[in-house]
Amino acid sequence: MASExxxxxxxxxxxxxxxxxxxxxxxxxxxxxxxxxxxxGGKFDPAGAARALKxxxxxxxxxxxxxxKLELADGTQAPPPPAPAEPPEYTAADINRELEDASSPxxxxxxxxQRRLGxxxxxxxxxxxxxxxxxxxxxxxxxxLIVNWTVEEHQRKYGPGRIPRLPQIQREAIRWRERxxxxxxxxxxxxxxxxxxxxxxxxxxxxxxxxxxxPIQKEKDYISSWVDMGFADEVIRKAYExxxxxxxxxxxxxxxxxxxxxHQKGLHTVEQIAAGDSQRPRxxxxxxxxxxxxxxxxxxxxxxxxxxxxxxxxxLRKEKKGGETDGI
Length: 328
Known about the structure:
This protein starts with 15 loop residues before the first helix and ends with a helix. Helix 12 crosses helix 13. The longest helix is centred in the C-terminal third of the chain and has 26 residues, at 300-325. It is 62% helix and 0% strand. It is an all-alpha fold. The chain is built from 15 helices and no strands. The model is unreliable at 1-8 and 284-298 (pLDDT under 50).
């Protein structure tokens, strides 16, 4: 029963002033991290917080920074967010050693990637692929899923038969690893989200009067964050129109700042924005109200995502079977 949630027991207490500051900030991330700190006795453990909240480390540090500004956390106890590690400079000897290791999956990975790209990998290509394999530590199956996804996206953007360069695939692999996508299971879930986001991105670009091209990576990041915030189509269009009125054209950072401001105030519909309803912060419920986003019909996006996943799996099985036939 819901009432049991409030019964005495293992109780966490919060000062009224702290609750007031969190409510006025309107940040769900800050509130969740504050609950984590209460349970941890005020000690900020970056790795522990990331695991408990299922966040990327940077998101934890961003929420902590806001708590420090609200004087609800001690910033001196936490180190600055770690800078992304740079991959080492691998040598030809490193790669040859791995290729000659009969127990390593790397030789098979090389042949599968060559088969998928339709070319023999150059020395620099091999360095890029080995960087993905060794630096990210991703399983070979996940790397193949990344290769297939990157090839498909590249051909959607530039046309059939075009293939991406290995540095592009490496950047995509590092993005997956930074998001914690490091198992076949998590990769499949991530692909479902990417397929769904691809469809939603097309719809949002149309709201921004962009119909003749695919979004670049930075634009994809903006769109992904707007989807996560749960904005209705009308609100995204309103933010776009306000941006054009102010800047004269589409300015992605400026538009993103508008939407972030509304999100922090709990304003997710045109009606809420018009009323200036910032007294009761709340998150929009997906599918609630007449102004909720209207993507594909219920279940349609999931169906297409499953079909795409099955197609990718079939492609991988076919490639592996072909490799076995060739004596790989």
